[in-house]
Specification:
8-stranded parallel sheet, Urease, subunit C, domain 1, 2 domains, alpha/beta, 385 residues
Length: 385
Amino acid sequence: MITQIYNGKILIPGGRWINGGSVVIKDDKIDEIYSHSRLFENVDNSINAGGGYVLPGGIDMHVHGGGGRDFMEATKEAFETAVAVHRRHGTTSIFPTVSSATEGNIRAAAEVCSGLVEDRYSGVLGLHLEGPYFNADMTGGQIRENIRIPSPMEYIPIIEDYPCIRRWDAAPELPGADDFARFITSKGVIAALGHTKANYNDVVEAYRSGYTLATHFYNAMTTSHKNGIYKHEGTVESVYLNDGINVEVIADGIHVPPVILKMIHKFKGYGRMCLVTDALAITESPDGSSFDPRVMVENGVCKLKDGSAIAGSCATMDRLIRTTVKEAAIPLEDAVRMASETPALIMGVYDRKGSICKRKDADIIIMDKNLELTHVLAMGRQIEL
């Protein structure tokens, strides 16, 4: 199967653009990129980009579900339903996220994920565990009953049994959290700090132990605050000061206001900042139901019904890109790289994902001049929007 996308403004590595170019896809790979839009005779399918933007597909490294289904359900049907929802909005690769859970629930989700990772067309690249090793004072939308301190009796066998686990988040100030990070990173798993009250010294030690990512930066972590009459730095300021720590941001314009999005970009740059949805099952739920009965959507914001916290989001990848460009005034090429290239580099899949490049997987989205999504191709297969 040969597909040609033509008449587009193509974003290529280095943040450069090819105006009026073409991308030729053979089966599930990018075969060639051209600086012209002449149609080839041997193509089976041609897609006119209409002068719009031809971009690498989004890679969501923090997402809980969609379509009324949650990855914590630990069924293939739930995984595939949620993945399909986000594919329709430009996420062509996904790291399903499991919130703080019991060991049994973690293992059940990892079993399902392991099977899907083996299918290169599933879109699933590995599992992300958000917890349960968090600060009990910073639970946010997490299930408090599942919060606990790191136990090597638990995390070592889980990591050894399930190589599909690619990232695990914890609060680095907890007892044993440094040993936890050293172990998981020795196995090639990303250690991320989150739901934390870590101060500057904690963050410095965390980085030395292997923490290289901040989970939903600004959310469920402290900022500059008073203790009595004196000012103290928070986790946010400490992460800013550590050049080696990458950040992920829920760029829906709600979790992090546009002005702060702009500030994060100014300090961290596109190379250390990535966009995530943190989307919950309620995202595009057909009947408005959610896996978590504590969650509701009000004025486009996911929150706990008791009003105590924002809980995840109902955002999608196309919305993140629009918000970043239109509300935070960040250049489109940077916004797209933060949705594709940066997460691919962080998660170690840039050899095949994250940019429009010859011989890489044909994960491509097309947006019109208003940044509305018009086409999605995942592994060369066109997705019905």
